[in-house]
Amino acid sequence: MEPQGLILDYDDAARLSGQLKQVGATVVLTNGCFDLIHRGHVDYLRQARALGDFLFVGLNDDAMVRQLKGPGRPILDETDRAFMLAELRSVDAVVLFHEPTAERLVQLIKPDIYAKGGDWGPGQKTPPEVIVVEQQGGRVVYLPYVSGRSTSEILEQVRRGVGD
What we know:
By secondary structure, the protein is α/β, with parallel strands linked by helices. The chain is built from seven helices and six strands, in the order βαβαβααβαβαβα. The protein has helices at residues 10-22, 39-49, 62-69, 78-87, 103-109, 130-135, 151-160, and strands at 6-8, 27-32, 54-60, 93-97, 113-117, 139-143. It has a six-stranded parallel beta sheet, with helices on both faces. The longest helix has 13 residues, at 10-22. It is globular, with a radius of gyration of 15 Å. The chain starts with 5 loop residues before the first strand and ends with a helix.
């Protein structure tokens, strides 16, 4: 079964973004691990998609998820995570990336809007991609963070046996 959304490599994503921008579309990019996709992810991606005409989702590959989240992660491999993301109505294209940050992906896609969750931004951590986005004339939008809706929190509940 093929996903309904696109799963692209860097070159195809850059080419598609350029074509979209040529016809005046607003290109949005977000990124993350998206391990164990849950309601917080779905709501976040819906909000990100509403910011423009086309949503690219940069997906950390398995090696980067392990580096960022630690042993035992990801729970689901990159192929499964990419497939599920591509099936979401709000996601137009998924791009697997292999670096610790999405700066290279931002350089290639050149989004008009770079969306990040509310656990980033003013009063929080600053995403390293912000400088690249702004140098390319884009803007960063921080979307509300839904407390209690993270994969790490869900996994902790499972470990404690909470939620029965």
